[in-house]
Structure of Helix-turn-helix domain-containing protein:
Amino acid sequence: MDTIIQIMKKYDFSEMETLVYTTLLEKGVMTGYEVSKQSGVARSKVYNVLEKLIKKNLVVVNKSEPKLYNAISSDEFLERLEKNVKNDLNTLESQLGKIKEQEEEELLWKLENYESVSNKMEHLIDNAKTSLLIQIWENDLSPNLLKKLQEAEKTVKNFVLILFSNEHHYDIPINNFYIHGFEEEKLQDFGARWVNVVADEKEVVFGTVENDNSSVDVTWTYNKAMVNLAKEYVKHDAYTLKIIKESPEELKQKYGNEFEKIRLIYRED
């Protein structure tokens, strides 16, 4: 019931209205007194609640005495609610589409929590048209996000994904992806796992995520310098991993079995 109450609140139905409606739905025709008794809504308030539900077309009342109340079926209610929501969304799409959005290209926007990061990544993936460059950890590949990536790979021309996994779980239903394989070293560099999603070379979500998702330091932006930096970061990983994949034995002889020497780039090394 708590779930129903919370969802109904989103559509402007109070807790008492939900209790009265669901009681009538379950018990059938009742007087106001009976509704109060069965629903737990005080008798002093139940008639006002019933009147509100009548105005919202969720409850009907007879024309004779004693007054009897009945709920419309859940099917009818949900059908009407769905229709209203669709109409509202169509109106918003039409009206908001007329408002020219000003792109603040130089601003960097902080995403406050893991949910907002996931939502923004899904939005970029859903709306990418020409290119999608991604660095992502297995932890962040929810079933929903993975499904969106599968769909994007079919429609986006330039699609590449770099996959990281602490447990080295690299079995995903994506064709064009590269296994990073240097997770331990990268975690030492960053101190946390990270996400990098670049869509159509114009928009990016980039930053770090703590292992338990409790804290994020992730930015979303159209800033050209940030987009180019993030894009080249993914491409550079892909170039390197492609070479390693194609010539592993030769590179192991030169850089070690774990390619540990490939990271020795400073003079003192």
Notes: Residues 17 and 49 are 6 Å apart (CA to CA).
